[in-house]
## 1
Amino acid sequence: MPEVRYLKAVNQALHDAMEVDDSVFVIGEDVAAAGGPFKATRGLLETFGPGRVYDAPIAEAVIAGVAVGAAMTGMRPVAEIMFMDFITLAMDQIVNQAAKARSMFGGQASLPLVIRTPHGGGLNAGPQHSQCLEAWFAHVPGLKVVCPANAADAYGLIRSAIDDPDPVIVVENKTLYAAKSELPDDPQAVPIGKATISRPGRDVTVVTYGAMVREALTAADQLTIEGVDIEVLDLRSIQPWDEAMVVSSLARTHRLVVAHEAVEAFGVGAEVVARMADIGFDELDAPIIRVGAPFAPSPFAKSLEAAYRPDASDIVRAVRRTLA
Amino acid sequence: MSVVIGEMLIKSSSLQSLYRQMLLIRRAEERLQKLFADGDVPGFLHLSIGQEAVAVGISSVLGVADTVSSNHRGHGHALAKGVSLSGFFAEILGRADGVCRGRGGSMHVADLSIGMLGANGIVGAGMPITTGSALALKMKGAGNIAAVYFGDGALAEGVIHECFNLTSLWSLPVLFVCENNGWSEFSPTERQLATSLERFSAAFGIAFASVDGNDVVAVADQAGKFVNQMRDMPSPRVIECQTTRIRGHFEGDPQDYRNKEEMSMMSERDPIARARSQLLAEGLSDVWFEQLHAEVDSEIDVALKLAQGSPEPTSDSLVADVYTPRLGVS
């Protein structure tokens, strides 16, 4: 199977979705002529023209608003917010308008809109260009949130997000953009809400998503040397999340670690842990451990950011604790 | 679909019909006012009494394929766009047969099947939605336009800058309709805004007109001219309607921040009283008005009775429409 960069898979998903459905259009800052700040939208303007690929001014509230209003008027907009940190400027349209329209209007409306946005550190981009804010959106009824960890899932989840009748936030990870992984010649949609086992194992389940999947797989290699066999479960979708797959993995391993790049406190991990402490209680042989960033803004200096970002060694330590 | 607009429409939708629509909105809101006072309307109620000429004048030049977004004071906008009266009442009373099944209430009345994209509880939030709707309408290329109602209280919100900029840059067919009643909730707008909507519009190169918003014909006439131009060649327009908020910011607001002089001017500025004088001058009789009022009241009675007969929504519908059901997808 050919290996492609994550970014190429994102680009191909947008291209293929626009090709099959004329109502799909792309809007964002520098997404047209410049091909996107990370080049995710490269070539779309040339292929589909200025009537389907829009360079918006630096105005996140109206970018999100355009997505909401166009979705209400029969289109399938795909908006890009250049860094997830900038989404704060679009929160009213996403949280008060897009998320609520269907319920608040009594089921009259479906809002098939997608917001793509990259999160995560690793570029020394500092406190306002590195945040992982996906838990905010997972907390809002009416939104769906996905966070693909590899090229095939990036392709498949973006296709599903664009086909979905409801608003979907697609969270990409900046450090993954250049990473290569397998993408079939005929890539398929990946259903929203379905996790996957990235590495089967017997001893401890590590639930994770996004760039932390890679760290968990590295941790698995290190732990193998110690004779510990972990199962790495990639959520892929955060809202809705695949509770059934997590509990079934827990039923095999009886130990659970939840790891994400986002700040640990009040995060996605807290939700997973709380549910497993309820429906998975009888399966647990040890306390559940979370791995996440410390409760501080993402710092700039190389030394500080390296210390701030959770990695394989943090997962290894957490796994050891569940086995202690 | 396209609609007949401008002067041609004013002729066909005569002042009599505009008067009837304004009266219907007024009487419907007066009934809500009484129901609210009796404790029968849950939540907040922001009445548009005194501002009916704007909604009716604007809607008289819009077709069903044109879209509108509204704000918290949006009862008139919804009814003038054609939302069912019984569905409207049922929504505001929080009943299962409300247009939004009782989940939205007064601040979220919507009917997307007729292009009513919703009232809104967030000041200024209709503007970005309308901008997106206008982009979609322009992409479809059928000459339809999107209108957004907002108050002068929304002029200090940041999104107006983003929306004026984008609609002007991209020539999007948005009719920005400002209902300037002089009040930003409990504060006079002169204490809230350092400039004016006219200067805002000029800064972004958007054609602007100010009209007497209590003169329904003036509103319809100016809106007709603008909408005509917008259908021919998509681009934004701003119409500022000087109007009067006769009631408080919400029902129960004692309005002790308004002076007696302003309050005493209300009846002179009342758009319905003014339209009535015009119609009397045109030779209509008191009997005509009596008959019309009886007819409108009876229409309201029937709709309200239907709404009041509707059950309260049951808890099994609580999470029903958070997401769209999909066949074959769990």
## 2
Amino acid sequence: MRRSDLPRILPWAVVLAIVGGDAALCARSPGDLDRFLINAILALSAFATLHARMLSLASAGFMAIGAYTSAILAVKVGLPVALSVPCALLLCGIVALVIGLPVLRLSDVYLAICTLGFGEVVRILIVLLPGLTGGPTGANLSTGFPYDAMRKTSPAMIALFLGLLIYLFWSLSRSKTGRAFRAIRERPEAASTMGIDVVAHRSMAFLLSAIIAGAAGAFYAHSVGSLDNGDFRFTRAVDVLSYAVVGGAGQWFGPLLGAGLLTALPILLRDSLGASIGFLRDFAQLPNILTGLALLLVVVFLPGGLVQSFPRRTMPHAGRGARPGTQSGDVPSVEHAGPGAPSARGETPLLAVRDLSRVFGGVEALRDVSLRLEEGRIYGLIGPNGAGKTTFINLVSGLDSPSSGRIIWQGREIQGRPPHRIARAGLARTYQSMRLFAEMSVLENVIVGHHARIRTNVLTTWLRLPRERAEEAAAREEASRLLAHLGLSELADLAAGTLAYGDQRRVEIARALALRPRLLLLDEPAAGMNEVETERLGRFLIDLKGKGYTLIVVEHHMDLIMGVCDQIVVLNFGRTIAEGTPAEVAGNERVREAYLGRD
Amino acid sequence: MDLSLLADPVFLAQNIVDGVSRGALYAVYALGFTLIFGVLDIINLAHAATFMWCAFAGWIVMSQLGLPLPAGLAVSMLAGAGVAALLELLAFRPLRREGSDRLSSMISSIGASLIMVSIAEAVFGVNTRRFPDSVLDPRPFFLGGSAGVRVSRAQILTIAAAFLLTLALGLFIRRTRMGKAIRAIAADQSASRLLGIDVDAVVIVTFLVAGALAGAAGILVGLLTNNIVPGMGAQIELRGLAVVILGGMGSIEGAALGGLILGLVETFAIAYLPGGSDIKDAIAFLILLLILLVRPYGILGHRTSDRA
């Protein structure tokens, strides 16, 4: 069945069924058209956050702010809709910044927690301001003068706004910003160590989401003509979330499908089953139960939503490991210049680490580790499991902050700086447990490394200026060249997650090199590689050194470490127990005791 | 602010009593919530719906069947344990396949919660239910004469329960064999599996305990507030989150402390601030924002990886 036409036809059938069903319902009762359009806008609001791997439950709250602000400005102040709606969006944006800023720098669950109560607080405010909002009894807009004029223009305006939004998300998805969001969605940490400012992107997404929800609220107000704070309960936020979850947050059109499906489903069910099963006709909880079931089932059985079942642009042709990389014994090489000869900086080391310590809840993972790295050399970092090697890499790459101590990069202290700034300063890393962007192609993974160098902004993206296309093409070409030199060209169009283990490790190194770093931190690059691959990796690392790169290699593979490193540091229980050339370290009694003896 | 109230010692003492008992209720609710978070790194947003169903289970046993309080409490705790275990099987276990993505499990628990609340609305309607007076004498004690401080039996019971349950849960986690296994899973799930710990079984036990705690909270809220409705979970959900973050996510003593703080702040805001009762539902949110701004890992929590 996999090979038949069904997988190609099915998605189109789903799209047709949803669009056709919605169109039929709207044709039957044209009053429903507004609702479908508004729900589609709300779905895109949820997409904005979920696509950046954020769970926001604030949509009902922002919808309420947008609805009441625009309605009050239109009815009490007499502003035309063309002014009242933008004012409402402005207010939504300001509120989003106020509640988003403290939360977005924290890990992803806090936004969900914080926005959980937001809608309720907005409803409390609405009740507390009866003079403006009508309080708990609600506000009737139809008594206001501009109402009639607004209602007539509503559906066309909503459709126009929705069209603009679709264009926005479509153009974003094809830009470097869209690529950055896809990277964040898959691997937020890896995205940040590839030079992407995760917090800034998430703030932007949350702001966008709030403004879109506010717009949906404003349109809702002018479409319905009366407001009641009961319209913006928590279940509304859950409905909005369900559109994006059911449709799928991987592609912008997923949530639109989700909204189309979930808006129509309760109506269809009630109409078709209600006639025969009388109980369903008056079953007020039916829509909520359907929403809840949809959320539960999709998260468990179809985590990517409806769009997950759609063919991708870069269709992986082979299964896991089906395609080996270059089988010849050639040592892949890096053609592009690399950092070149050590810069004339006098005595300043490339990286100096002084008395670095990291304590996790009373356990010292790292204790007073000091290091000095000269340019153009390979350093080995070894030690038994739990010795603090990965902690060290995390500290240097900015994923974690030291409890004390300093990290000095080319004469400047960088400890505690966000990972994307450290990456842009020239430190690239790979991960022990690989963190490729699995759904992206190998080529795209590498292009992510160009993120900080592509100088497009939001405006050039939305206008699709030629400069942007030129820059994208240049990045694509350079990434292809890099892949070619690493012998990975054949894999360029495959989804990174489908590659064999060893190939994934090499793609990780390629991705890190795309940052054009001066220092490369490799966390167990040979894990999962066979002997031949490991030997080739060794020669490749020496080649990198020849190009002027400086490397720190964390490894358990002793042959590799002893073969390529100029200098080795041995950690045990978070402390440096030995340091020296491979020969010196191999002869060290404490090292034998702590490490080699146990091997 | 009414300054004359500040000088009234009886009024002050009354608010302390009310605040502590309200806080004790929040603490019992938050204990189960923080247990699941601490062990599994899961934010179970269906804990509030579990709590609501427990209150109704107690109501059925005590109001409809006329059984006494201990029976109501037992059935409610059993119901909570059962519902929580069911949640683990249907909403959380299937998501543990490939590491834990905290957002997916939050979403599935939101879905489960919506279903549970909707069913309760369909079954019980929107009317407020209450436990019969016969299960616990509603007449309060007076400290310092009839004009003194009122303390109800329900308040005493709630404070005692919060104290005992916090203590018992702490001992269970620190001293028992199962507690040790639970802590091992909290520290490193895959390593625990390698050490031969049956992770799924330990997780079920964790959910059973958390559900039983939700059951106790469901009975206590019924006794304290006489207000059992399908929407009652929504009223405590955000408070529970605020309490847990205030105390430090996963910290048992932190949940007790956080509950106490929130209960006192809410009670004092209602008593001393003009319009305090109007904004009481927003206080948890404000505390939440504030703590996330200044100390996101909570009062008793450790600073770990709370960065983006």
